[in-house]
Design a protein that fits this description.
Elements: H1 6-16, E1 22-26, H2 31-39, E2 42-47, H3 52-64
Parallel strand pairs: 1-2
Length: about 60
């Protein structure tokens, strides 16, 4: 696989399998990182310091949508 930006990978996955819920876990909390990920098909964008119960809720919600 060639080196691609995460956003390019989200787009490829979303185009190939739109039923797959992409949930981004990241260090970056700025809008310039979040918005491209959401536009590329991610269902959610979370900071990696999220509490475990919140992360589990986000995963379940992503799976159901």
């Amino acid at each position: 696989m060639t080196r691609q930006s995460p956003v390019a990978v989200y787009k490829r996955v979303h185009r190939a399998s739109p039923h797959i819920g992409i949930l981004v876990l990241t260090l970056f909390e700025d809008d310039t990182s979040a918005f491209p990920a959401i536009r590329a098909g991610a269902k959610g964008y979370l900071l990696n310091n999220i509490e475990q119960d919140e992360l589990l809720r986000a995963i379940h919600k992503t799976m159901l949508n």
